[in-house]
Amino acid sequence: MSQYQPGILAAPVPLQARHLFFAVDSLDAVPAALDALVQRVDSAAVVGFGEPLVTALGAQIDGLRPFPAVSGPGAHNPSTQQALWVWLHGVDRGELLLRSRAFEKALAPAFRLVQSTEGFRFKTGFDLTDYEDGTENPHDDAAVEAALTDSGASFAAIQQWQHDLDGFAALPAEERDHIIGRRHGDNEELDDAPESAHTKRTAQESFTPEAFVVRRSMPWAENGQAGLMFLAFGHSFDAFEAQLRRMSGLEDGIVDGLYRISTPLTGGYYWCPPLKDGRLALNALSLAPDTGSERPA
């Protein structure tokens, strides 16, 4: 019986994490690398396949597509789609570093690491703006319905946002609240916030159909810069994409206030396969490794 990768719905977000993004260097070596990947993945990792890899393997996953570059009046969301994504969970930075190196070596020469970004939990799950993140996440059965397909697969949308923390801190408290749409301190949603407030741009129940996703975002900081590694899991990309288009002003011309103080640097979509007997079920890929599952005809 298939089941989902447990890290998708594990809450709260881990204390420490690493996002690893890989490009394909040698297609001929991919089957052996995927076999090594299956052997190495455990409950402290989530793996996602990008459309470039799936297409290169001659396979097709319903609903998988490249991340779209979405631009609106005052907002730009770049596409930096990669072939493979691995999200490692942990509690110790050193242990995560060594695990990252082990994954990189196991996947070579088929895959080349192009980005490695550390994430960490701030307080109980706050953004570095000091506002709580993921307040409206669905829970329990609603989270399963939002994040997973019937087979146990999921679709992950990932963006690295870089914050202007000094600029945000310099704003009056009320203006900061109005950008987010919540009152700092007690996290209460503000009914009188402007339509550009992030909470109003992304109110999941306000879309038709409703656009619920399960967010697993974490802060990052590197070389004097910092922000949020936004991560949302859905049973398709449609809910996330509807939110992104509205945030960018493509629905009604109103741009999310978040773009005033933060800039997306990356964007990628990844299919997260289900598990079968505790291992990644890769039978949907034409060049699935020899993991005990049959290749598709």
From TrEMBL:
The keyword Coiled coil does not apply. It comes from the Bacteria. The keyword Iron applies. Residues 127-275 form the Dyp-type peroxidase C-terminal domain. Keywords: Iron, Metal-binding, Oxidoreductase, Peroxidase. Residues 182-205 are annotated as: Disordered. This is Dyp-type peroxidase. It comes from Pseudomonas veronii. The lineage of its organism: Bacteria, Pseudomonadati, Pseudomonadota, Gammaproteobacteria, Pseudomonadales.
